[in-house]
Structures are given as C-alpha cells and as structure tokens.
Amino acid sequence: MSHASRLVLVSHRGPYVLRPTARGVKRERTIGGLAVALLPLVEKIGGVWITSGESAGRYMMPPRKPRFELRYLPLTAEQKQGFYYGLSNNALWPLCHSFLGRVHYDLAEWNMYEQVNSEFARAALEEADEADLIWVHDYQMARVPFFIRERRSLSRLMFFWHIPFPPIEIFRTLPWRRALLEGLLACDLIGFHIPEYARNFIDSAVELLGAQADGDFLHYAGRTTQVIARPIGIDFAAMDSMARLPQTEARVQQLHGALGGNTLIIGVERMDYTKGIVERLRGVEHLLEQHPGWRGRFSLMQIVTPSRDGVEAYRQKKREIDEMVGRVNGRFSDGIWIPVRYQNRSLSPAELVAYYRTADIALVTPLRDGLNLVAKEYVASRIHNDGIVILSEFAGVAGQLREAIITNPYSQEDVAAAILQALQMPKAEQRQRMAMMRARVKAQDIRWWVDGFLNYFDHV
Ligand code: GDG
C-alpha cells in the first residue's frame, strides 16, 4: 500500500469493548477471529477502525502509544435487535454455515440491516478520501460497499468474508440474495478463505445476477471485481514467543502437575452451534464406552467462551452442552478422575497459550467453520514440535493443515477413532506432522495474508 494513503477498516465488532467506570473508560479486548487478526495490522500501519459500540466516540489507541483511531457508531436497541440479533445472527450466520433449519428471514430485519449498513458507509466516507483504502469485513457489513460506491464512485474498496460462502442452492433461499451480491460486487476486491467459497460466490453472482465470469474476475454493472481465496493467518511470531516465556513455562509445569501424567485434549471455542461441541462430547463418550481401557487416562479440557447470549438458539445450545458434560462425567468419572473439564468463561491470552502448550491433542471439530484460528494458534504454540491436531473436514483450515488427523464431526464413531489414533500416535510421527504444519502456519502468517490485500492496489 502506498504510504500516502490511509487504511479505513469497517467491521461490526472491533478490537475493544469500552466500559465506562468510576475512573474513566476501561477497555477490554474482544474475543473472536476477526479482532484478533486485524489488531496487529492496524496497530502497525495506522488509520481508522469503525465499529459499533454502546455510544458514539473516537479514541486514539492504544491510549499511551497511539497508533490508530477507533471510532464507535452506536446502534439503537431496535437496530441491534433487527440488524445484529436478527438478520446477522438468525439469517446470514446459519445460512452461510448451511444450517437452513435455523434460518429465519424477516423483511423488517433486512430493512434494519440496510439502515445500519448505510450508516457505516456514511461514516467510512467521512473518514476516507479517494486515495484511502477502505477495507470492509464480514457478513454483517455486506451492503456497506454498495452504499459507499453509490455516494462516491472512485473509492478504493475491498472486502473480506470471514465465514463460509454457501453453495448456490442454499444461498438462493435468501430473499435479498441479489441485494447482498450487489453489495459485495461494489468492491474492487473480495477475499474468501478458501477456493470453494470463492467459487460458490462466483456461481451465485453469475446465476442470480447475470454477472460475467472471467477466471477470478466478475464483470457486473459496468464494473470489474476480482474474487480471491486467501486464508487468514495468525501472528505466528508473537504466539511462538509467548509460548516460550518463563511465566508460560511455569504455568505449563503447574498444569502438568495437576494432570498427574494424564493426556490432555483441549477444545477452545466461542459458544456456537456451528462449533460441534455436543457432537464432540458424543465422540468422547463413545470412545470411553467402547474402549474402557482408556478410562482414567485422558481428559478433555473444553473451554467455551460466552457469545451472542442474547440469541435463544445460543442459550439453548449452552444448556445442551452443560447437560452433555454432566452426562459424560456422571457416567465415567470414578470420583477422582473426570473425563471432561469444562470452563464456561474466557481465558487471558497468556492462560490460553499455557493450555495450548500443555495439551497433547487439540480437538477442533466444527460442523462448519469459515477457517478456524484455534487450530493455527495451537500449532504456533507447539514450540517443541510435538502435539496432534484433530480437525473437522468441514473447517476451512483443513486444506492448509493437511497433516492433522481429519475427521467427520457428525460421526461419533469417526471422532472416537480420531481421538484413539491421536492417543496412540508415536512422538516421531507427531513431530514429523507438526513440523510441516508449523512451517506452513509460519509462512502463511498474518503479514502474508495482509500483504495479499494491501499490495493489490499497487498492481492495478
Ligand atoms: C470467525 C470465523 C474464522 C476463543 N476463546 C478464547 C479466545 N478465543 C479466540 C481464539 C481465536 C478466536 O477467539 C476464535 O477464532 P476462530 O477462527 O476459531 O472462530 P470465530 O470467532 O468463529 O471466527 C472463523 C475467523 O472468523 C477469522 O476469519 O477463522 O471461521 O467463524 O483467536 O484464540 N481467546 C482468549 N480467551 C478465550 O477464552 N484470549
């Protein structure tokens, strides 16, 4: 990106939630893939990040060493309900993850989505001039590019879609499918994690809008948009260094002591029905049932970070997980050993890295996941080159982490077999597989990912 231009980021969630306290405003890091990935970028190159917040405001961040400006746009209660809980969480999220049974379409919610997207577009135009690069993120903001382009045709516009883009036969159920596609096609460049999602998007644009496809270019309404696949990376170097800190080492030793030599399997996710937590617990249950010899020899540490608890589907899923943990522990615990250790809270980054380092196996079995950063973070934390990743074939990251044990999360037999294979994998094989995964996660890190987008405008 040329140095004369600034970066204007637009996303529903930002890197911090600000909470007013008696002693001023307190900032809390948000949890979630997008915020974790983009913060190092904007801290490095500067610019403005527009996100939604409880009240309007602008803050230089971080306060002591300002690198970028954070601008909050407030949503009214009605907007939050219609745009966020409604259209984003109850329509687009299940639609894109191919959970058609959970989809709920409501015109009033769509209208609210349009209204909020239009407000974000206006804010972006207030921050950016024509030389600046506007980078819009994720499914809550699909109409923003359209509203920007409508008001200023010469904007430099990119989009990254963080979740899956579904096959056309699923996507076409969305009543506002044309508007959503037109929203995105107002961009110069649209990125998806993997080629399958890019292909699905291109198919939909051709079939439902009559766009002309030419390789990875789409021509529509007198404009050309490039569609690329580039899986998001993590800050490998930062994760690797954190894993090597003396404090991390001390915590790892402490955790090992508490485990008494048992194998530790770790699962970390936001509370979400797409993450396959209940199905995974069934896999563990099946294994303990079929292979009693493994009872008492391993534990699953399942961390579930609270998320979207304003949505009934999420509250219900939490109840189901609570019950399932209780059932497995009730059936198999011998009073001292418990098969599932469950934490329904979020951990500090330092604590999370210590868990990654302690765990012999990472169990990452979403029913569908745009990419999945947890698997990459686990790999980056494995500084001794050992450890095993069990990965769902429906996580976008499966194409990159090919040396993982790949499993079908819908099958308890398959998940149980994958865990069994991991429990028995010799160290030499672990090291061979892990070394290859580490090399790839390191080479395709967050900088690699970002460069693919920021360099785009240098070449056109
Ligand atoms: C979306 C897409 C795509 C979780 N619990 C804690 C914690 N986390 C952090 C993890 C990781 C992030 O949250 C979760 O990222 P994922 O990629 O696994 O999943 P989503 O939030 O659904 O993200 C996804 C991503 O966007 C990026 O494009 O990969 O497919 O769904 O970074 O570490 N972090 C801390 N404590 C926790 O308890 N500190």
Write up this protein.
By secondary structure, this protein is of the alpha/beta class. The chain has two domains: 7-232 and 446-458, Glycogen Phosphorylase B (Rossmann fold); 236-443, 3-Layer(aba) Sandwich (Rossmann fold). 45% of the residues lie in helices and 21% in strands. The protein has 17 helices and 18 strands. The protein has helices at 33-45, 77-96, 107-127, 144-151, 168-171, 177-185, 195-209, 236-244, 246-259, 277-290, 312-332, 349-358, 373-381, 412-423, 427-443, 446-454, 456-459; strands at residues 7-11, 16-21, 24-29, 48-53, 57-61, 68-74, 133-137, 156-160, 189-192, 212-214, 217-220, 223-229, 263-270, 298-305, 340-343, 361-364, 388-392, 405-407. It has a ten-stranded mixed sheet. Strands 15-14-13-16-17-18 form a six-stranded parallel sheet, sandwiched between helices. Strand 10 and strand 11 form a beta hairpin. Helix 6 packs across helix 7 (195-209) and helix 10 runs parallel beside helix 11 (312-332). The longest helix has 21 residues, at 107-127. The protein is globular. The model has no long low-confidence stretch (mean pLDDT 94). Bound molecules: GDP-alpha-D-glucose. GDP-alpha-D-glucose is lined by residues 31-34, 36-37, 162-163, 232, 268, 270, 303, 305, 346-347, 349, 352, 369-374, 377.
